[in-house]
Amino acid sequence: MKILITEQQFKRLVENIIKEGLKSYPSHIIERKLKDYFDRLEYNEKEYFFTKVESPYYQIITDEKMIKKYQPEFNYNIKYHDISLFYDNNNEKILKDVISIINSGGYFISVANKLGEPHNKITDKNKIYDLLKNENSISLMIEPIYGEAISKYKNKYLYHTTPIKYLNNIMKTGLVPKTKDKRSFYPGRIYLSPNLKWNESIKTQLESETNEDYVTLRVTNFKDMKLYPDIRFKGGYFTYDNIRPENIDIYEG
Asked: Pairing state of beta strands 83-87 and 107-114?
C-alpha cells in the first residue's frame, strides 16, 4: 500500500482544486493538527532550536513564530506559509499519519531529510516514505498547494526566465506549468516576478548553477490569471494556469 501520493495523483488533486475552487487550509490549522497529533502521543514540544527537552519530542517552526519572536513589531498577517516539522522516535505509523495530515490539508512536502543531515535531502518524492520510515529522527518542510490568490494587480508586466533551448516551443505553444526542480518537490507551476531586477538576479543565478543560457520573457494580459504569492520568493508569484503564446514576448532590455 502506497502512503505518499504519486506525481499523477498529485496532479489530479491540483486539477480538482482548480476545478472546484478549493483552497489549502490556512497554515495555523495544519500547525494545530500536527501539534494535536504529537500531543496525543505525549511527545514533548520543543519550542525553539536551542530549547532542551527530553525525547520523544517534536518541533514546529513557522514564519509566524519566528517573526513574532525576533521581530515582534512586524504586523504579520499571512495565512499561508511554510511549516518546518522536526521530530524523533519515529516509526512507520507515525510517518504515515504525518503524511496523511499534510496531504489531506492541501499541503505538500517540499523538502525531506533525516534530522541533522540538511545537505542529504531526498531527491525522489515517491521514496520519502520508504527512505524515512525506519529513521529515528525526521525533518520535513511543508507548503500549501494554494495560498490566497492576489485579488488586484496593477503592474503592466510580469517576467519569467527560461532556458533559451525551450524558447521556440514556448513561443509556439505558450508556458505550461511544470517543474524540474530536483532540490524540492514543487507541483507544476509557472513562476513570475513583478520586478525586472529581481527576475534578472534569478536568471543570473540559474545560468551560474546550470551553465545554460537563459532568456527573459515578458507576460501581458494576465488579468484573468490566478496568481499566488511565492512563499520562497517574497514579492514573486506563481500560477497553475497556462499562459498563451500571444501573451508572451521576449524582453530585449
From this structure: unpaired
Q: How many domains does the chain have?
A: 2
SS3 243: strand
168 and 131 assigned to the same domain: no
Alpha-carbon distance of 222 to 69, in angstroms, equals: 38
Cβ–Cβ < 8 Å for 39, 46: no
pTM of the predicted structure, to 2 decimals: 0.65
Is 120 found in the same domain as 29?
yes
DSSP per-residue letters across 142-201? EEES-----S----S-EEEEEEGGGHHHHHHH-B--B---SSS-PPSBEEEBS-HHHHHH
Same domain, 195 and 136: no
Closest C-alpha to 178, from 65, 3, 101, 170: 170
Give residue 71's domain range.
Answer: 7-144
R_g over Cα of the chain? 20
Q: What is the pLDDT along the chain (253 residues), one digit of tens a residue?
A: 445 666 666 666 665 555 444 568 888 999 999 999 999 999 999 987 778 899 999 999 987 777 677 666 666 567 878 899 999 999 999 999 999 999 999 898 988 999 888 788 887 888 899 999 999 999 999 988 877 777 667 788 999 999 999 999 999 999 988 755 444 455 678 989 988 988 898 899 889 988 999 999 999 988 788 888 776 676 688 888 899 999 999 998 6
Cell of 253: 532590455
